[in-house]
């Protein structure tokens, strides 16, 4: 059963089809009774009433009536592929994760997605893209559930329902379908200015990728790696596409959304079928696991911050190749369930408060979306490692568990001790000290700088890219009905860059506000001052 085979054609070879699903030479009922006819209901005479006793009719229609499951609450629209990841062995000094060792090949399943649109929405809308990878390692499943943008809108998961409510279609008319200018989105991001960095990336060409094959991927949060000696390092994960990073221009994105709403999923499937197998290198930026968890003044627990690659180069640790399209969209792409808490020995989490909330949210939503607690048994979600758990019963239980004592220790079923040897367990958390503290509902002071890094990003762009950002803000804000929201957003842009603000204001026919914070230029952060001339202001 586990879907790890690779087809030569790329079509229908990714998931080894479950032989239980379709078998035998004749059409049957679900119970295996052979059927002579599936086109005519059983009736009292050719023109008479349909009979309730027609089991095949009732079974066929009842099953159809229940074919739909809820779409994901976010990232509903996606496309996926099977592939293989090969470790380079270069991460050995910082992690004992077995799948990163030299030459080790691990099957993977990758799902790309838009965030806000529903399952049937267009691919080329301006939005963040999900980039989620499931590694079926010999130590269990590791999920790297990332995006194509290296920062996030919010710093604390408790705001996630709020930002999604603001960004999804308006509750009265359910317009727009995907992220584009609308009052609630701009209301939220202008009131919660930690969203400025992510929003600026969205308004840049990164918000309208040319192809899933040409996107970077980012783990966003800082993770903790632990090596064979038990020493730890903090890291950020990066996927670098072999084809480079490319975007559409806005006019192309709009036209394609109408002419071929399936543009990105078609591009991915066609490329794989044609043998143009997409590849990404996985890389890590590493930082000392210091008690303050900062690097060059940048708070590593703040998911609205990057660490510039000039300060911490991305070191390649392996290569992923997508080799096969799914056999069945529903069984694989729709039912796959990623979780940032699916970790293997050598990889651990940090106290990023956004990550902490995610660790709760994914399993919780999947219990609803996939109809109960047993979705780890669905073929696409099955680990390739042996499973010996004490999880029992529940909706859609597929396993026939032996034994009488699903608890440990027990004196009835014998055997199966806890894993005692070596360091190869998962979930032996690195003994990070926690400072004595009182319970508080507040963010650290270091989370308060919302503008230094947006400005860093803005200054890193070429003048053509900057023009695209100006055009995007002007277009999106021109659709905002409430004048106060437009003006407040201009106030945010004034704190990023005077030119950006003035150009967008001019495009909207509004006055240019003054900044309310000292621009980083005047008081360079340690990170900015180190960058010096490498980030030219064009
Ligand atoms: C789904 C990424 C923050 C809740 C997803 C998916 C990705 C993703 C890639 C789609 C997975 C798939 O293809 O099936 C991220 C990233 C985040 C982030 C990179 C921030 C760094 C959050 C937060 C929450 C959240 C803070 C909630 C507290 C969800 C939920 C789903 C989801 C509920 C749907 C999962 C499902 O139905 O299987 N996210 N997300 N995400 N995310 Fe996030």
From TrEMBL:
It is an enzyme of class 1 (oxidoreductase). Its EC number is 1.11.1.6. Heme binds at residues 72, 111, 160, 358, 362, 369. The active site is at residues 75, 147. It comes from the Bacteria. Residues 28-416 form the Catalase core domain. GO terms for molecular function: catalase activity; heme binding; metal ion binding. Residues 30-49 are annotated as: Disordered. Belongs to the catalase family. HPII subfamily. Decomposes hydrogen peroxide into water and oxygen; serves to protect cells from the toxic effects of hydrogen peroxide. This is Catalase. It comes from Streptomyces tateyamensis. The lineage of its organism: Bacteria, Bacillati, Actinomycetota, Actinomycetes, Kitasatosporales. The chain holds residues 57 to 594 of 755 of the full protein.
